[in-house]
Amino acid sequence: MAPLALAITVSYEAKWVYFFLSILELAIGILSNGFIVLVNVWDLVRRHRLSKFDSVLLCLGTSRIFLQILLFMDAVHLTHFQVMRDPLSIKYKTILLFWMLVNQTSLWLATWLSILYCAKIARVSHAFLIWLKGWLLMAIPQLLLGSMTFPWVSVIPCMWKHFSLSSSNSTVSFSGNITENSIKERFTFFYFFLLCNLGNIFPFLLFLASSTILIISLGRHMKTMTAQKTGSGDPSLEAHIIALRSLISFLFLYVIGFVASLAAVPFTLLISSKIGVMVCVGIMITSPSVHSIILILSNNKLKRVLKSILYWLRYFLKACVV
Predict the structure, then answer these.
(1) Contact by Cβ (8 Å): 78, 274
(2) Which residues, other chains included, contact 294 with Cβ-Cβ below 8 Å and sequence gap of 6+?
């Protein structure tokens, strides 16, 4: 069997620049998602209840905080610990498996957010769609609970394989046939990585379906406005546009992040290019935090709180200068 490609090293300066950028991305992600979580937790404490939309935002923000931390741990491992000749250490595989778990949970929560947008804004006339719309609005708490538990079902096989490979590694690492066993382990892990990510297909299709219904609803609403010669300040039109802006931005960012995660696998297991993996992980860290910022700017309650904080911060800075 052909030997593996030589590991491509990264300069000391490049590692620290990447590490600094990773810290900056982590800070942005924690601040944006932490803001979403804190505002909704404060609302829950004050009013003893949350709307379904705010409940989904609270869960989504919490999952993305864990997602940012796991991706930052991945970046730390890349810059300080990972050896590309033997990339599948126990710690690295553990980080990847928990990332797949949290990433799938985050996708489910973003899907329920798109379905809520669709159920509240889209205008439907078919009897089944009207019934489905009402049922979804009623079942959001149960769906949130399901989205927290379902990803474990798809990741458990990977967990089992992960620990079985980890235990066999301890006996293989001192054998003379390390190259052949290492190649076999890499392809096995690649197979299970793809298998675990198959769980993302169903929520992604649901997300696309709800977004498509919202786009169709917007088209019909625009035709109605044109026929009735309604002004551009229609609240329903603005709600459609805000929802679609959020959904399309998520779709764009999620696809970019997912492609980066897929590209990171051959960079790690086949090409052994550390710089390629670093770029992919950097893109994966950026995607969820950018969408959280878009959510904040698209949500009236969050935007109002943010303006209040910025106002008091500016007042405080002026007082300090004086």
Answers:
(1) yes
(2) 245, 246, 249, 250
Closest CA to 39 of 52, 50, 24, 28: 50
- 267 is written with which tokens? 């960079």
Q: What angle do CA 6, 165, 105 make, to 5 degrees?
A: 95
Q: What are phi and psi of 155, to 5 degrees?
A: -95, -20
Q: Alpha-carbon dihedral of residues 299, 301, 304, 305, nearest 10 degrees?
A: -120
Closest among 227, 240, 103, 90 to 166, alpha carbons compared = 90
What pLDDT, on a 0 to 100 scale, did the predictor assign at position 34? Answer: 93
> SS3 sequence, 185-199?
HHHHHHHHHHHHHHH
d(CA 240, CA 222): 10
Give the C-alpha separation, 56 to 62, whole Å: 10
Which neighbouring-strand residues pair with 273? 8
Quick: pLDDT tens for 27-85: 999 999 999 999 999 998 888 888 888 888 999 999 999 999 998 888 888 777 665 55
Query: How far, in Å, are 67, 100, 257, 295 from residue 95 at the CA level?
Result: 10, 9, 17, 27
- Here the tokens at position 17 are 């620049």
User: Of 123, 131, 191, 124, whose CA–CA distance to 157 is shortest?
Assistant: 191
Instruction: Tell me the helices (H) and strands (E) count for the chain, helix number first.
Output: 9, 0
What span, in angstroms and rounded, lies between the C-alpha atoms of 177 and 279?
Answer: 32
Give the contacts of 24 (CB within 8 A, at least 6 positions apart): none
The DSSP result for 217-247, as a single string, is HHHHHHHHHHHHT--TT-HHHHHHHHHHHHH
pTM for this predicted structure: 0.82
Mean pLDDT calculated for residue range 217-241: 67
List residues bridging with 8 in a β-sheet. 273
